[in-house]
Fold this protein.
Amino acid sequence: MQNIFIRKVGRYGIRRATSSDISDVIAINWAALPEHYSDSFFEERLQESPETFLVAEDEQGKIQGYIMCRIEYGFSNMRRYGLARKGHIVSVAVLEEHRGSGIGSVLCEEAISGMKQRGCSEIYLEVRVSNDPAVKLYLKLGFKTVATHRGYYRDGEDAYLMSRQI
Ligand SMILES: CC(C)(COP(=O)(O)OP(=O)(O)OC[C@H]1O[C@@H](n2cnc3c(N)ncnc32)[C@H](O)[C@@H]1OP(=O)(O)O)[C@@H](O)C(=O)NCCC(=O)NCCS
């Protein structure tokens, strides 16, 4: 897989996901996050927007992180009025023992670059208000909290709606 990395971060390579990566991505999703999706949802995101579905692979070719996004068209989160093509970061995760090495940042940066290619003018995501590492990552990447969705998650926790123009 060496020649298809779009970017290197330390000993990890970032590349577009393929269908054969989906089972590893799902395993990471279960290990790292309480929000899960059907297998077909992952497949659909990959087919619809391969530019924004990326994985981080280590030197052994094992996937240690991913980002999955959706391209949407709807009301702007950044402007008071008007419609926008928006990139939605649906899910991003890095396995615990590989965190803090810059993988999460680079996955987001490269997915954002894919969103630009797809003509998005803004990006948004939802994040648990208690998820400090993720909130800090998004603030570092230039996101702003534009709203709080009360009781957004199944267990009742609130979500910050964070957004950024691109
Ligand atoms: C959020 C997550 C993807 C970050 O991945 P990562 O590879 O560790 O991120 P990076 O190494 O690129 O760190 C980027 C920034 O995030 C913040 N951050 C990362 N880990 C942090 C921690 N434990 N505490 C506080 N801030 C942290 C920092 O601002 C860091 O930048 P810095 O290194 O310049 O200080 C990872 O913690 C994760 O998978 N968490 C579980 C899944 C999850 O919560 N996903 C987000 C759902 S919205």
